[in-house]
Every structure is written in C-alpha cells, then in structure tokens.
Design brief:
Shape: globular
CATH class: Alpha Beta
Number of domains: 1
CATH superfamily: Chorismate synthase AroC
CATH architecture: 4-Layer Sandwich
Low-confidence stretches: 364-370
Strand order of the largest sheet: 1-2-3-7-4
Mean pLDDT: 91
Order of helices and strands: EEEHEEEEHHEEHHEHEHEEEEEEEH
Radius of gyration: 21 Å
Length: about 375
C-alpha cells in the first residue's frame, strides 16, 4: 500500500496537510517496551514548524496522543495508534493555486494519477505527512534501544554550497546537533548556513542541502540477500521523504574514483570480534550489516513553493504568472533531520524482526554480534 512501510514492523501514516489531523498506526511493535508520550514528543518537537526564523511561520505544537497499544508506560504488542491534530492551517492561502500546478511540486502528478487532489497545503504530498513517520520512528527507536542500544544521529552537513568539514561521525551526539537552529554540529559552518537560509528567505526563494546520518551499535546480520539489501531498503526509505533527491552510503560516489586497494576494508580483531580497520562500506557489505557504524547521506532539493513570480501555465494550459502564497520552509534540511532518523529506525527495526524470525530465537535473545 502506498501509505504503508515495513514487513513485520508495519507503519501506515494518514492525514493531509490541511485536514483535521495526521498520524500513524504502528503494527508489530513487540510488547513490554517502555514507551510514553514524551518519548515521541521529543522527536516531534524537533520536526514541528514554527521553530524559528529559519523555518516556515506555520505554528503547530504537534502534541501527540497515544490512542492505543500502550498501557502503564509499556507497549502491549497490539497496534500503537498515534494522532496529532492540525491547528494552524489556512486554506485561503491556496486559492490561486487551485487552478495552477506549482512548478516542481506534486500538484500536477497527483491530479494526473487520481483525477482529484487536495486543493490546499499539498495534501499527502506535503511534508506535513512526515509527522506520522517521526512519531512511528520514535517508537522504533525505543525498540532498537531496548534490545541493542542502537543510537541514530543525523545532522545537516551542507546547505547550498556551504559544507561542514571535519565532523567526526563516530562522535556526534544529538545535543551537539541541536545546539544550532540549523542542526549542524559545526558552529562556524552552522552560522554561515543560517545566514544563507535567511538570504534566500528574504528573497522569497529557497535552497537545498544534505543530511548525514549515522547508526551505531547495529547488530551484524541485518539485511536480505539480493532484493532486500539493507542499503537498498535505507535508500528506498530516504527517497520516500518529500524533497529528497539523492542517497549515498559509505564512500558513495567518491568510491567510484578510488582503487580497490584503497577502498577495501581489511578485517581486524577489535574487542574479541572481527571488525574492519576502515569503513568505506558504510557498515554494510553484501547488503547485510557487518557491525560497523552505518553512515549515509541524503540530498534534498530546494523547496518547490517559493514567493517569487514564476511564468508557468494553469491546468487548462493558459499562461499565468504564479506568486505562491502560504507559509513554507526556505530550506527543509533543519526540520528533516528527525525525519531521516525516523526512517532509518523504521528500516532497522523491521530488518531486526525479520532476522529474529529467520533464526527462530526471540528478538530479546539478540541477533548476530554487536
């Protein structure tokens, strides 16, 4: 189904940008996991709009309600339903755009596919849909933490042509990421990124960026041969995020310019187990996790809806000049950080459950070597 993801840890998101509510249903969460509203709210607060001058002016508190699946702070093993009400939406801002497909947006393709579309806010094509993903991802993170102490951290590594160099991906923590509003742990680069975002916002324009993500303490053995490779599932998950346009893992495209002698990751013994001296593979070999830190990058385009005049045509093919109204992010990457973390968690927990089912020993018994 187009709004569901996962095999054993199955998540379905629902709701439109300007509808009454958005949310998710999580089916397959193991019982006995400590979970409360604050665990989920912490990630939603990092994703919510109206955080400051670098984001959209839409004001949503995004307070989550757990409707089912949790009792006395523990999961029951039954579906966990999560609801977030929409409060600050303005359909009137989209009056002109009801007849005009926004350039590089999903207005035209949704209309072509369904013959109908949400007339305001982008509907399901809006990043508002990711509220449910982040809420469900917070549940997945609790499962991964409970069984494996997996830690997932993402951060903004570039905005436009401004890059943060020299960040040690093995050491980055979320508190360092959140120390700046742009969510970059390099203070000097973060300041320049913030200035760049403000420049395009004042010009009624937008700018893209890149998010780097690391997943630590991932057990060995996650991922399926050939068509269910772990990096393929991560790529699918990341490219399902609105505005994402590229994915690379480990050495990525830079690896194409290297020789095998340089790129190979020789095996060594660390703490009594096989490990690799280098990690150009990005923690995955043959589509299966090898116990090293998984790290990857996701590229995001400039947001499509901008306030500058654009010459285009309406749905009838008549030339028009569109000056989009509404409240939109000049750059999505600061708020996309928890979305990337959520999608990584959803993939990893699903793969962990699949591997546990294959081995026939309960998830709590562990999977492979950490």
């Amino acid at each position: 189904m187009s709004s569901s993801v996962g095999t054993l840890f199955r998540v379905t998101t629902f709701g439109e940008s300007h509808g009454k509510a958005v949310g998710a249903v999580v089916d397959g969460c193991p019982p006995g996991i400590e979970l409360n509203r604050e665990n989920i709210q912490a990630q939603l607060d990092r994703r919510r709009p109206g955080q400051g001058r670098l984001t959209t002016d839409r004001k949503e508190k995004d307070r989550v309600t757990i409707l089912s699946g949790v009792q006395n702070g523990q999961t029951l093993g039954t579906p966990v339903a999560l609801l977030v009400e929409n409060r600050d939406f303005r359909p009137g801002d989209y009056r002109q755009m009801r007849k005009i497909p926004r350039p590089s947006h999903a207005d035209f393709t949704y209309w072509a596919k369904y013959g109908i579309r949400s007339a305001s806010g982008g509907g399901r094509a809006s990043a508002r849909e990711t509220v449910g993903r982040v809420a469900a991802g917070a549940v997945a993170e609790k499962v991964l933490e409970h069984f494996f102490q997996v830690a997932i951290v993402a951060w903004v590594s570039s905005v436009g042509d401004i890059e943060a160099d020299g960040i040690d991906y093995l050491q980055v923590k979320r508190n360092a990421v959140d120390a700046s509003s742009v969510r970059c742990p390099d203070p000097e680069a973060a300041a320049r990124m913030a200035d760049r975002i403000m420049q395009v916002k004042k010009a009624r324009d937008s700018v893209g960026g890149v998010i780097t993500c690391v997943c630590r303490n991932v057990p060995v053995g996650l991922g399926e041969p050939v068509f269910g490779k772990l990096e393929a599932e991560l790529a699918k998950a990341m490219l399902s995020i609105p505005a994402s346009k590229g994915f690379e893992i480990g050495s990525g495209f830079a690896g194409a310019a290297m020789t095998g002698a340089r790129h190979n990751d020789p095996f060594v013994v660390k703490n009594g187990r096989l490990a690799t001296r280098t990690n150009f593979s990005g923690g995955i070999q043959g589509g299966i996790s090898n116990g090293e830190t998984i790290y990857f990058r996701v590229a995001f385009k400039p947001p499509a809806t901008i306030g500058q005049p654009q010459e285009t045509v309406d749905f009838s093919g008549h030339p028009v000049v569109l000056e989009a109204k509404g409240r939109h992010d000049p750059c999505v990457v600061p708020r996309a950080v928890p979305i990337v973390e959520a999608m990584a968690a959803l993939v990893l927990v699903d793969m962990a459950l699949i591997q546990a089912a294959r081995r026939g020993d309960g998830l709590a018994a562990g999977i492979g070597d950490k």
